[in-house]
Structures are given as C-alpha cells and as structure tokens.
C-alpha cells in the first residue's frame, strides 16, 4: 500500500507539472500582445514629434486606437490567461501611462522641435511593454 | 493520523478533478473548451467534474460572450487554490517518503 501511494503521488505530481507547462505555453500569447503594444507605443509617441501640430496628434491617436482595438479582440479570443496576468498587466499599463504623460508634457512644453527628444521619449514610453514582453516570453 | 495520506483531499483526488485543478492552478482563468482538450475528456465528463468542484467551492464558473459566441470560463477560487496547494503538499510528502517493503 505505501508503495502504491508513493507511485500514484509521484505520477500525480508529474501530471500536474505537465499540465502547468501546457498552460504556460498556451498563455505565451501575452508576450506577443505586449511586444506589439510596445511597438505601437514607440511609433505613436514618435509620430507626435515627427508631425508637429494636429497632424501628429491625429496620426498618433488613429494608430493607437486601431492597434489597441485589434489587441483587445486578440486578447478576448485567447482561451487561457496565465496566473498573475491581471496584476502584471496593470503594472505594465500603469507605468506606460505615467511615462507617456511625462514624455508628452515635457516634449510639448520644452522640446517641441527636437526629434532627438521624441525618439528617446518614444523608446522610454515603449520600455514597459517591451521589457514586459521579453520577460513574458522567457517564462 | 500523521501519515500524509490523511491530508489528501477526497474531492481533488479523482484523476480528472486533479487534472482540472492542476490546469486551473496555472491560470487566472481558462476557457471550458481549453480545459476539456487539455485534460482530454468529453464535455459531459468535464461538466460533471466541474460541478463537483464548484459545489465544493473550489472552482468558479463564469459565463459570457465574445462577440456572438457564448463562452464559459473556469477559475480556481481562493479556497480551491489553498486546497490544491495542500493536496500537492500531501502528495509531495508521500512521494518523498521512502516506501517500506
């Protein structure tokens, strides 16, 4: 009996590990989500500096809405969210909003004509999603 | 009553229910069809086992729509997560003990 207990416990734990791995692999969609979001954050922020005035704001807003809309649909269609995704998502998007507001405020008030500022700013704004996406891909 | 065998949760101990709990333990939430395919059971088998887990307070079932398609989501409750962790700890204790011949 103890032998049977030992064997079935070992088998159950091995099965749990296999299932954990399957869920993790299927939940990797979130890495793609974050990397695309990071690319969108970079391009939409840089567009504001590249096309000063209403044109830049319009390009940035249209791009952001289109990509974010597609990503929401993509996320809703996924069959599994890995454990802890909601917290991770909140932290990444919170950081993104804070950095975006800082880069936008300083850029519009102090560095309006500086492409270098907008390039650097766009990179900084994209960092939360890019780092989050890379960490997610390595999980 | 000190043997870890006594810490085994009878609700989770069934192979299908254990697999469902293990799948959900790695997820915030998972779609019914995904769990069915991962655990490799039929719709009706999974429904019955999920009902048992739901009655025990271990699994939460949420129904909704994505577009026009109905979806059923499964997730572990806080009690379910704690029960599964305790069950796995008991299994580990059994697995780590040297079987006596």
UniProtKB/TrEMBL annotation, chain A:
The keyword Transmembrane applies. Keywords: Membrane, Transmembrane, Transmembrane helix. This is Uncharacterized protein. It comes from the Bacteria. The chain crosses the membrane at residues 33-51, 57-76, 88-109, 115-135.
TrEMBL record, chain B:
InterPro entries: WH-like_DNA-bd_sf (IPR036388), WH_DNA-bd_dom (IPR027395), WH_DNA-bd_sf (IPR036390). Transmembrane segments: none annotated. It comes from the Bacteria. Residues 16-94 form the Winged helix DNA-binding domain. It holds the Pfam family HTH_34. PANTHER family: BSL7504 PROTEIN. This is Transcriptional regulator. It comes from Sphaerisporangium album.
